[in-house]
Amino acid sequence: MKIENFLLLLCVSTVFFQPYLRNSGCAPASQALLSRQMTVVPRFEPGECAFPTPDPEKDKVRCGYLVVPENRTRSNSRPIRLPVIIQKSNSATPAPDPILRTLGGPGASSLKIVRGRRSSPWLDRRDVVIFEQRGTALAQPSLDCPEVDAANLASNRANLDRKAATQREVAAAKVCHDRLVNSGVDLSGYNSAESAADIEDLRRVLGYEQWNLYGVSYSARLMLEVMRDHPAGVRSVAIESVLPPSVNYDEVGVDGAVRALKVVFTTCAAQADCARAYPNLEQTFYDVVRKANQKPIAFKVKPRDGAASLTVTLNGHDVTDWVLDYLLSNDAESVADAPWQIFRFHRGDFRALQRYAESKVNDRGFYSLGMRYSVWCREEFPFENAKKIRAQSDRYEGLPGYSIQNYFPGVCAVWKVPAAKPIENQPVKSDIPTLLLGAEYDAYTPPDWGRLAAQTLSRSYFFEIPGVGHGPGFSSQCARTLVAAFFDDPTRAPDSNCVKTPGPRFTLGK
Q: Is the pTM of this model over 0.85?
């Protein structure tokens, strides 16, 4: 123990006796040392939970904040505070290496994972550390952009087309950028390299020799960054719906969407009862999209803020988004409904889209957009080809003009963060034991991306989970079983018999 820390402990321990030790010198010494300790970063500050936990017993959870520099590349960078929830294991003798979890996005808040304690298979053997990434909703500061949320709601209420709505979003992003910068936020400090360093600092200040990393979607990419930059503290890694750093997402995002749709069409055609009930499913879907683009579908919606009822129109791009987001990015039951829902649309029955129409004029975005913009405009967009981005939908006759994240070219022009180093756009090479999971119907991170990432991970195992979409661990017992078995023994491939069971057959009407 350092002498100053010993003296601090000694002096603090005598605080109750200080009325009797006024001349001891301990009181001013302890105050000075405490003040010095409070300026040290990184550090962990125990405190109240930043998000409600389901644990009725206080000894089952420990909460606090990781305090780290906002930008490690700059001297005297101000400290920021990142919430942490530590769920204690159900075991009286837990393994010494906990599991670190955080969500994706980039920009999603992670602490809500704590709600799943009772169904978590990992707590039987280990503690679980849930970490709120810098810039997200409960971090201090948060990089929320209410200006953009308001602009998007206004665009939807006015039924603006995508081009006009994008222009409005870019203008609002500029307002958000200027507000954050003027408030003292260093946007160049909000990126995967800094978040990876946060994870390493958290491990150190909590006193773990090693731990296991678990990420999904963007946080799968973040875990790969930790493997590259801070490998010594990592025992094993499980990642699902993998976004490898070497994939230029905006150039191939539409390809992934079309691939997932194609799996639906070909699987239905291979099931005799589905093929009879929903013949020519692929052509039927693209006919629905074409007709909705020609004549958008109108819905009466009552805004929750008390504004007058209004009409919201959804076009073919919206129909495609709904199928990808609400059917194929969900559990096996939702995926199984896809052919039936497409034929309902074909018959003119669009009731399933009512809640989607309501959400477009009522719900703010899911992400802290400032964090999302900072990461993407630093690590993705600088390495992408604008012509390839624009040309994607030209390859698909059924989706003319369809795009994913079409706002980033404009947003990145006003967000103004420096590009990442080239190595951050290259494959990660590692011999850390790694489990990679893809999902059969994943429209946003195709299974082949997991296979691609595995090529440079010498001790890796890849499995494709049948019947589900993006983030298979949220909806698939098979995925959760594989992850639990892998963390118990990452030196060998887990029993994968559950992967051999096909997903549910498609629904034949309800």
A: yes
